[in-house]
Amino acid sequence: TGDKGGRVVIFQREQENKSRPHSRGEYNVYSTFQSHEPEFDYLKSLEIEEKINKIRWLPQQNAAHFLLSTNDKTIKLWKISERDKRAEGYNLKDEDGRLRDPFRITALRVPILKPMDLMVEASPRRIFANAHTYHINSISVNSDHETYLSADDLRINLWHLEITDRSFNIVDIKPANMEELTEVITAAEFHPHQCNVFVYSSSKGTIRLCDMRSSALCDRHSKFFEEPEDPSSRSFFSEIISSISDVKFSHSGRYMMTRDYLSVKVWDLNMESRPVETHQVHEYLRSKLCSLYENDCIFDKFECCWNGSDSAIMTGSYNNFFRMFDRDTRRDVTLEASRESSKPRASLKPRKVCTGGKRKKDEISVDSLDFNKKILHTAWHPADNVIAVAATNNLYIFQDKIN
Amino acid sequence: MFARGLKRKCVGHEEDVEGALAGLKTVSSYSLQRQSLLDMSLVKLQLCHMLVEPNLCRSVLIANTVRQIQEEMTQDGTWRAVAPQAAGRAPLDRLVSTEILCRAAWEQEGACPAPGLGDGHTQGPVSDLCPVTSAQAPRHPQSSVWEMDGPRENRGSFHKSLDQIFETLETKNPSCMEELFSDVDSPYYDLDTVLTGMMGGARPGPCEGLEGLAPATPGPSASCKSDLGELDHVVEILVET
């Protein structure tokens, strides 16, 4: 997790408990470190927030773990490694650290590694700075494991993980005259298998797929995905709610999913004209759009995620609700992440929002929803049915019941 | 933000409102609502964070909404050009007042002004969702009258009204306005020239002295990529840090 204070906290799943063989291990804090600090841009007289916008793991290649974390302006590559041995028997210093007088040393010895209490260290290995004029909204590691992209409101840059003083600009939608600006980039991601392909979404509800082999500057897309607007539901808020807040490829690479304000859409990369699936997240908010515009909730950026087999998708909502959609059975469920609503290890009860008329028992009416409690970030374990849900300053880990 | 479970009381002044409104020219509630939305949007654009850069995506979406409203008003013929001198300081006052009116209007009508073309929506009561203003929220019919007259004098073309924002903001917060709509390049530090294209001349950020560990070869070979960690550990032991 990354928080507003610039901290990153890593959780690790413990080994399964022998006394409870049917339940998976619990997640506990593994490492905490300060990734970003607040900065001041002297040229513009503006603060640069330390808030972490995105974290992405690199594929693991050895005992250490690597991740990229970013705030609005700077991306950092962090290495998290374990140290459980220390060397003893140095020649030039004593065990307590005091320097030995070189003239007193009569023999050389080889230091011996001895076990010590496990220490988890996080160290910044690369800092990729000064490449974004606007706020970074996405980072995505390429399938070649050597490069990654970072996207801000108007530009996308390609980096090599080893090189920090240079990045290549691959998308630039900044108009010559900023007064003509009507569309911004909202999210970007590399294809999971084709290292030359990436997509980026826009505030007008469009997705562009680009192939880096076609030209150095991918201003012209290879594919353009947009669903035609439904004229019967058009309002002054249509464009705002069509703005895509997140785009995620399926693990298979065949599909991608986009999240706009009210729905989640699944697209087949082979069909640009419309999505193959549309799932309503909280359609009951459609009649409240004006209020949500006034209090700025309409600009909330929700993420979405796939499960490991691409058979289910998940996204967050308000009132600490999150929604899961099973693509095979076409069933969906609303669950709540809050301490009050569930005891540890108890099954979550499905929730229902009442949209009008009589409110049934256990239903909650739209007007009672707490719009301060928004679940913007969710994640699904790549192999297990374990999910992580971030609700304000609490992290919830849920799993499906075994047996 | 939203008061949970608060019931909105039906205030008994509604007959006053009706009486006053009857004396005005008939203006559809849609126009009123649309004007409220326009005013609210302009206020949102003006309220820039002084310390942190404003969210560009949000600003662009709000500006597009303003543009849409203006286009519709132009088609309606309700948008009249006016000399910019007439505007002066008035827009700022007008915006503040109508923001209060927005809430008052919703409270009066008990519905959220969400104008839609080919309006098929039933505007259900969303009064509980509208932010609960203080008890002093003015609900004067007079403000409706003012609302009617004010805009007629002060409406300009879209560019003019945005220009008014630019003027007001330039005196208050030049850096904020720059971020919204003008080119941020300055003669001293052209980020675009420096960064666009192949050569990045940007200084590396504070790196805590670890830059030196990056491999010298341009492309990482397998041996370079493999365990820098082991290398560190061994190096540390050798130099006895």
TrEMBL record, chain A:
GO MF terms held by the record: protein phosphatase regulator activity
Keyword terms: Repeat, WD repeat
Keyword Amino-acid biosynthesis set for record: no
SUPFAM superfamilies the record matches: WD40 repeat-like
InterPro entries (alphabetical): PP2A_PR55, PP2A_PR55_CS, WD40/YVTN_repeat-like_dom_sf, WD40_repeat_dom_sf, WD40_rpt
Any single Gene Ontology cellular-component annotation: protein phosphatase type 2A complex
Family from the record: Belongs to the phosphatase 2A regulatory subunit B family.
Protein name: Serine/threonine-protein phosphatase 2A 55 kDa regulatory subunit B
Gene behind the chain: PPP2R2D
From TrEMBL, chain B:
InterPro entries: E2F-SERTA_domain_protein, SERTA_dom
Domain SERTA: 30-77
Superkingdom classification of source: Eukaryota
One of the Pfam families matching this protein, by short name: SERTA
Matches recorded under PROSITE patterns: SERTA (PS51053)
Gene Ontology cellular component list: cytosol; nucleoplasm; plasma membrane
PANTHER family, sorted: CELL DIVISION CYCLE ASSOCIATED PROTEIN 4/SERTA DOMAIN-CONTAINING PROTEIN 2, CELL DIVISION CYCLE-ASSOCIATED PROTEIN 4
The protein's name in its UniProt record: Cell division cycle associated 4
Species this chain originates from: Macaca fascicularis
Lineage of the species this protein comes from: Eukaryota, Metazoa, Chordata, Craniata, Vertebrata
Encoding gene per record: CDCA4
